[in-house]
Write a structure and sequence with these properties.
Helix content is about 35%, strand content about 25%. With about 90 residues, the protein is α+β, with helices and mostly antiparallel strands. It has one domain (about 5-80): GIY-YIG endonuclease, CATH 3.40.1440. It has a three-stranded antiparallel β-sheet with strand order 2-1-3, sandwiched between helices.
Length: about 90
């Protein structure tokens, strides 16, 4: 089962949120319905980056790197170079 690293942008304040999940569609729904505490006051949210990994451990490691000070510039570059065409719901 693949796992996904994702980055969301708040349309309310522009802040970014990075996470990982096995079910990206359900996770986006949960974020935008306010069922994720860290983002419920930042809604609405848009998906600005998505990356697939084969194993959960790999996804967690990659998420940690993107969130780290060393990965900060990487996060900006990932978003700028990512084109997404996904419909949820």
């Amino acid at each position: 089962m693949p796992f996904y690293i994702y980055i969301l942008r708040s349309l309310k304040d522009g802040d970014l949120y990075t996470g990982h999940t096995a079910d990206i569609e359900e996770r986006l729904i949960r974020h935008n319905e306010g069922r994720i505490s860290l983002t419920k006051n930042r809604r609405p949210l848009e998906l600005v980056y998505l990356e697939e990994q084969e194993k959960r451990g790999e996804a967690m490691k990659r998420e940690s790197y993107i969130k780290s000070p060393e990965g900060g510039p990487t996060k900006t570059s990932l978003i700028e170079n990512f084109n997404i065409d996904i419909s949820v719901g």
